[in-house]
Amino acid sequence: MKKVIKLTVNGMEKELLVDVHSTLLDVLREDLGLKGTKKGCNQGECGACTVLIDGNPVPSCSLLAVKADGKDVLTIEGVAEAGKLHAIQEVFNEKGAIQCGFCTPGMILVTKKLLDDNPNPDEQEIKEAIAGNICRCTGYAQIIEAIMALAGRKQVR
Amino acid sequence: MKPFRHINVPGVAEAVDYLNKFPGSSRLIAGGTDLLGVLKDDILPAYPELLINIKAIPGLDYLREDENGLSIGALVKLAFLARSPLVREKYKVLADAARSVGTPQLRNMATVGGNLGQETRCWYYRYPHGIGGRIQCQRKGSGPCLAVGGDNRYHVIMGGKGCFAACPSDLATALAALEGSIKTEGAGGGRIISIGEFFHPLGNALKAGEMIVELQVPPLPAGSRQHWLKYTLREPVDFAVVSVAVLTVLEAGICREARIALGAVAPGPLRALQAEQFLKGKEPIPEVLQEAAVLAVQGAKPLSKNGYKVEIARVLVLRALEASFAGHK
What we know:
heterodimer, A: alpha+beta, Ubiquitin-like (UB roll), DNA polymerase, domain 1, 2 domains, 5 helices, globular, B: alpha+beta, Uridine Diphospho-n-acetylenolpyruvylglucosamine Reductase, domain 3, five-stranded antiparallel β-sheet, four-stranded antiparallel β-sheet, 14 strands
């Protein structure tokens, strides 16, 4: 069974014919070619497939595309503007908060949501915000450090 | 995922209608965080032909408090419950339980109804069909429980019969301490099921064609305090090895009421009635609390590999009681 859905993806309106059993993740990656959103565990546990829907982070692997009909979707491709990296991306680069890069799109998006809601989160709030995003390279230290820097806080080690 | 049909329904009546028109071949979907896992791994002998999307039913995501207590619409998201100032202030164990589920991302989608209705996490039950074929068992209708002779480290230590899978719902544990119930709608009308009667060793009390529409919490005893604890292997993104929710009432230094609910140790949330009775009328001094914690796990019958859960449950009960009574000062 197929269905036509409308999505706003990174500010652009899209009308798509999708299988009703396709996840939003597969539609983003396969139909729209937006491969920045990663398929990790495909069970909603690792956070690599995180996108913002109407501003809130959700695991796109655990959402049927038809259920996102009419929604506003932000993927990592929509974070940089006019060819210029977002401040979060810049700081992740600077602080070495990226290694293999697989968790990075999800990490950047949950960070964006965190800072949109609360520009000055403390370390605990940062840890809670990224609790749903698994990173196997950095041990999280540089990621937390990067977000602390954005939040204008000095990390207590 | 294998194909299915998907329809949006405008109301509860239509959802129940479809469930009854397609008995055994339809499933409700709300947040879908649990169901999609079940479908991707194709764990059940019958794959649904139709998914009935109830997520867009208007007016089923309310949170209301009146003289009858708290009512929570089935479509309330866990993130909303966890953040609600009312719930955090008065129904702390519910907010804390909701906050302990999954990841922030999952809590943005998962609903309270789904948390109670989710499938068990038993790894034999959940074994993916794509890797050597699904595992049949009593819970799926026929066959022995492989957990009994197999790896049962996360299975029940009390109350198993035919199936030894533990209740995965954290909200159930919190609701048990609050003596809550579940309101349903079905073809023959609605009913109210107390949380203690909702879970069975082989599944839950929902009949074919019946759906959860509301959680209900009666008014709290005056002056009561609550505490929630959940033991997991890693802090976020994990199901409980053991969870505990307690509610206490202290008057002039004497315990007037104590409710202790244990989660993930049995097919449903379990009230430690003997320990509760023991505490009543006593001063909650350390020796008394230690004795109550021992009573709370008395009668546990662990399987071959989960004896450790008995000790974790005892310690969690002790710590939760200590914290709850400390809250009265």
